[in-house]
Write a structure and sequence with these properties.
The structure holds two protein chains of two kinds. Helix content of chain A is 29%, strand content 21%. Chain A is α+β, with helices and mostly antiparallel strands. Chain A is globular. Chain B folds into three domains: 96 residues, Elongation Factor Tu (Ef-tu), domain 3 (Beta Barrel), CATH 2.40.30; 103 residues, Rossmann fold (3-Layer(aba) Sandwich), CATH 3.40.50.80; 84 residues, Ubiquitin-like (UB roll) (Roll), CATH 3.10.20. The two termini of chain B are 33 Å apart. The chains are: A alpha+beta, B alpha/beta. The complex binds FE2/S2 (inorganic) cluster.
Chain lengths: 347, 304
């Protein structure tokens, strides 16, 4: 698969991150309709979809170097952003194996995995890593296996143990989250974790989702999309760092909204892990500035309608009451009222 | 996934071990407790049999299963015993694990009988927590099982009914012990009933089951709009039957959770297996989720 990496851009400070024309076209736009409703929008995660973001099992794009650097910085400031409970050691190795195999298959020019029994050899050319290690022996890697591999992949990951008909978040690498915290959530059950979402409970959405996930099969991963809005392309909008990013929200004006405001989409994947029987939850974050998004006419029209007509409770949950009119006004200029085509891909 | 029979080992007149290997590349990893469903040719139809994998979790190059010849033969095991040859190729599904070890257990208590030994052979290879294993066998199979069981004081082979004092074993376990039971139906029931009577919580009792969402009695479905009549086989879902007829039906999760595959029902009574419809909606008998649900009546008529 083609993968053209940009030199590292920043997702903090001066926010140099931009999407190229190709990156815009591959954005996983999340709205299948002009009206947004919360639902169990899970589907099998197979290679291929409305845009190229669905072509790999774990998608990498032009921002790879910048995102890996941002993660390294977050971990240097706060090592607790990566933690795994000791009883999930099998799940750590499951994750390492899954990610290495997927990357080496989808991006052979960048990654190579060679193995001879338990003697493994991993090459990551973009990050200039060349590592020989013994699968199953954590001492043979420079850091624990889950941390080792998730430092080399875009997107956050959590590990869920399954027991007593529930899932428990007991590990994760979480450095680019939309306002939730691993430290606070680790050890929580699926129900507790999803507690705060409005409306969803009324529809029994989470009971259904949980029942489905408990039966998630090996070799049959699933995916769903989630979305929110973020001011500036900032990956790390954690509760711990609220003082750093919270004030950004007051800086949105009609003049700068197109440049500053980003649609933040998470391509979430859920994969059953073989040895541990746990579930790996991947949360791959994509940020696109409104001024970039409106270059796809269909998306501009639809996003305008979705945000204009959003249910007030969901609008509050997505954290946008204050500047929503500014966004809707900005997008209105790109909506001529023409019907939008089915599906989420660009026309 | 296609697997080649690489080795057949006769363990006793009625018990054989099969070693299976991929035609190319590596096999999907499978954890202790996982089972494999594969297609076994039969005289009149293909049998889908499930067997526990006995190999350790590192086994990416081969799977091992142990097959007892079932009397009277149900087909699959007889073919494996009489006709299977080294080099034969079998079609299999990706292994699934419905019998995993509990990671937070302080101790594991394994109770097996007969061919129920198989998942525990995989367990024993990956144990990091103290365990105690009692295996019960008929006298004629005891030599075969003795050779398979790992050595050590934590493993006991019982060849007569009377040497396993179930009440004593179940009644003297430390707090935090998880119980795993695998054997013939009667054995499983006896052990579970006694465990419950002794106060074991349900969350600490585990039994193997191969039950799959797809399985059930065959039935007929009529698609009213296209006038088609389809047979839904025992090992096929209604959704798969519709797709096999070349008709595209809506779906997302294929697991009864999302509601995308709901189709309106005109006649018949479904056996609902989804997590979407409420009891009231089920009672209304107006629709079903075709990815998992089946029929209680011989026929269903769908408005589709
Ligand atoms: S496809 Fe989701 S419920 Fe059937």
């Amino acid at each position: 698969m083609d993968l053209n990496l940009k030199p590292a851009e920043t997702f903090r400070g001066n926010f140099s991150a931009q999407n190229s024309e190709a990156a815009i076209r591959r954005f996983p736009f999340p709205f299948p309709d002009d009206l947004y409703m919360y639902s169990v929008n899970m589907e099998p995660h197979e290679r291929g979809g409305p845009t190229a973001a669905y072509d790999a099992i774990f998608d990498l794009d032009e921002h790879y170097l910048g995102e890996c650097a941002d993660r390294a910085q977050v971990l240097a400031d706060d090592p607790k952003r990566c933690q795994v409970m000791p009883h999930l050691i099998d799940a750590e190795w499951d994750t390492l194996e899954l990610l290495m195999e997927s990357l080496a298959t989808d991006y052979p020019a960048q990654f190579t995995l060679t193995r001879n029994g338990d003697a493994w050899h991993w090459i990551n050319r973009p990050l200039a890593l060349d590592q020989r290690f013994t699968f199953g022996d954590a001492a043979s890697l420079p850091c624990p296996p889950f941390e080792y591999i998730t430092r080399q992949v875009q997107g956050d990951f959590t590990l869920q143990d399954q027991r007593d008909n529930d899932l428990f978040i007991e590990g994760g690498m979480v450095t680019s989250q939309a306002d939730w915290s691993l430290n606070f959530d680790a050890g929580m059950s699926f129900r507790q974790w999803h507690g705060p979402v409005p409306l969803a409970h009324e529809a029994g959405v989470f009971d259904r989702a949980l029942a489905y996930l408990l039966r998630l099969q090996l070799g049959k991963p699933v995916r769903r999309l989630n979305w929110t809005l973020t001011v500036n392309p900032r990956l790390d909008t954690s509760p711990e760092n609220y003082p750093k990013w919270g004030p950004d929200r007051t800086t949105v004006t009609p003049e700068n909204v197109g440049h500053k405001l980003c649609l933040r989409v998470e391509l979430q994947t859920l994969t059953r892990l073989p040895r541990s029987n746990g579930i790996l939850f991947g949360i791959r974050c994509y940020l696109i500035r409104l001024e970039e998004l409106v270059r796809v006419e269909k998306w501009a029209r639809r996003l305008h309608r979705v945000l204009r007509d959003l249910h007030p409770d969901l609008a509050a949950y997505k954290g946008m009451p204050r500047y929503r009119p500014i966004i809707v006004d900005y997008l209105a200029a790109f909506d001529d009222g023409a019907p939008t085509s089915p599906g989420t891909g660009p026309d | 996934m296609r697997l080649r029979i690489a080795e057949i080992t006769v363990l006793s007149p009625g018990i054989r071990k099969f070693t299976l290997e991929p035609l190319a590349g590596l096999l999907p990893a499978a954890g202790a407790g996982a089972h494999l469903v594969f297609d076994i040719p039969g005289a009149t139809r293909v049998h889908k049999n499930a067997y526990s994998l006995i190999g350790g979790p590192q086994a990416r190059t081969q799977y091992e299963i142990i097959v007892r010849r079932v009397e009277p033969s149900r087909g699959g095991s007889a073919w494996l015993h009489e006709h299977a040859r080294i080099g034969d190729i079998l079609e299999a599904k990706t292994p699934q694990n419905l019998f995993p070890l509990a990671h937070l257990a302080k101790k594991h208590l394994l109770l097996s009988a007969g061919i129920g030994i198989t998942p525990f052979l995989a367990f024993a290879r990956v144990m990091r927590t103290p365990f105690e294993w009692h295996h019960c066998s008929r006298a004629e199979d005891s030599a075969a099982f003795a050779a398979l069981l790992p050595p050590g004081p934590q493993v006991t082979l019982h060849t007569s009914r009377n040497t396993l004092n179930l009440a004593a074993v179940l009644g003297t376990q430390p707090l935090g012990t998880h119980l795993y039971v695998c054997g013939p139906e009667l054995f499983n029931e006896t052990v579970q009933t006694m465990a419950r009577a002794l106060g074991w919580p349900e969350s600490k009792i585990h039994t193997e089951s191969f039950a799959s969402a797809a399985g059930g009695a065959p039935f007929i479905v009529h698609l009213a709009r296209s006038g088609q009549r389809l047979e839904v086989a025992a090992d096929q879902t209604l959704l798969e039957a519709i797709e096999a007829a070349g008709i595209a039906a809506p779906y997302l999760c294929r697991g009864g959770a999302c509601g995308a595959c709901e189709l309106p029902l005109l006649q018949g009574t479904p056996e609902h297996r989804d997590h979407v419809l409420s009891p009231e909606q089920r009672a209304a008998n107006k629709s079903l989720m075709v990815c998992v649900s089946r029929a209680r009546t011989p026929d269903l008529v769908l408005d589709f």
